[in-house]
Design goal:
260 residues; alpha/beta; Uracil-DNA Glycosylase, subunit E; six-stranded mixed β-sheet; 10 helices; 6 strands; 10% strand; globular
Length: 260
Amino acid sequence: MSRQQQILAEIGIRPLWQLRNPAIVEALVEEAAAQPAPAQAASLEQPAPTPAAMPAPTAADVHPQETSQPAPPAVINISDWDDLHAQVAACQQCQLARTRSNTVVGRGNRQARLLIIGEAPGEQEDLQGLPFVGKAGHLLENMLAAAGFDSARDVYICNLLKCRPPGNRNPAQDEIVKCQRFLQWQIESVDPELIVAVGRFAAQSLLQSTASLGNLRGKQHQYGRYPVLVSFHPAYLLRSPGEKAKAWQDWCRVRQLLQK
């Protein structure tokens, strides 16, 4: 069994994806690329307005295929990566500062072509000060490897929130708002070719949409000038392994877009 087959088996999609030769991987990529995009979806090359502040979804409903691109925060006031880490570590803007063990800024290549944005740190992330290092992180690493990405070289990974919500509860709207300037600075500094939002809260907040994750995934969206794809959070896939095949299609699509 090849390394890629072993990874796919560990992800849990081997019964659906028997990769017996490398050509099949390319066929899957082509199949994902062939899925029709909505008329509103923007291409990788299409310019777009400046990206936005990211409050959690509000009563202003957004159609599942629409893209929202309002103006960014007026002032970010972060000078460099060291200053970002220092400001996050000193942040006391919400109640999460009282319960965190460590702040969690991000990991990976700060000049990566691919930026992955999750929701919030979990228990292991809070203890280690790094995003996606628990069981969900292990699954994410396997999915990235199966799609041909090196997480240290090809990807930068971060979250909406830089502190763990107690009990791994969902992010609260005020917490997302208080953290948004940190994430905005990371997006602009990494300047990726593609953003992948994993999980409902990450997708809805980034795209300012109330659409379900099922309606958001499978389409190409736009966040300012950055193309965005949406996929399942690895923690959800651990609870719902039947969705792993769909996640594999998403990562094939990511690979196909970055190969253009």
